[in-house]
Amino acid sequence: MTKACKLAAGNWKMNGLRADLAEARALASGLASPSCGVLLCPPATLISAMAESLAGSVVMVGGQDCAAQASGAHTGDISAQMLADSGARHVILGHSERRADHGESSELVAAKAQAAHDAGLVAIICLGETEAERDAGQTLDVVLGQLAASLPQGAVAANTVIAYEPVWAIGTGRTPTLAQIAEVHDALRAKLPDAAISLLYGGSVKPGNAAEIFAIANVDGALVGGASLKAADFGAIIAALDAA
Ligand code: 13P
Questions:
Q1: Does residue 104 have its Cβ closer than 6 Å to ligand 1?
Q2: 205 C-beta closer than 6 A to ligand 1
């Protein structure tokens, strides 16, 4: 069986102005040649400038969302092809903030992932339970249900990454136990259409907890929010993944 690739992905969310590209450059210049993939997903306004500023480095650039449609009368939306044209190689889809703030369903996420694949982008599809769902013992049902409905036809390791992000762990400083992360990742791996698809954990990953999370068998990396904004913090997380 082909082993999944390791990936450290940073999600800047709605943070970052041109001056913050200095952090991305500092990150890139501090990396030797990591064995894992390294990705930064800035807001759409910075993709092009970040891609230019990181050209020739190991750090890849990605988007945080794309439209399901290829083009047309969709004011304010950005197509997958536009992201690719700006220098993006990946796109985060179905983040819990988009599922909550914009009412995105798993079916819409699957359509967006299909559009991403059609444009040659790797889709990073996010899944995760709310705290109420975990308390009700529904975690695996929710996450596996989201997986089944969010994956487009033809999802393979070359075009798809899955990120497990418990909603209650995002931006809260709280994380599941290592056993809880392992349980979900084991269940996800068993249901993947291609066992070599990378499985990332996301939710309050920091330099201080990264190594123990990356030691879990079916964790292939992380999707990092707050700690990806600073080169020193994200660099330490990348070093932990590299050493795992
Ligand atoms: P934090 O690392 O800030 O908890 O955010 C996680 C996340 O939502 C990444 O997509």
A1: no
A2: yes
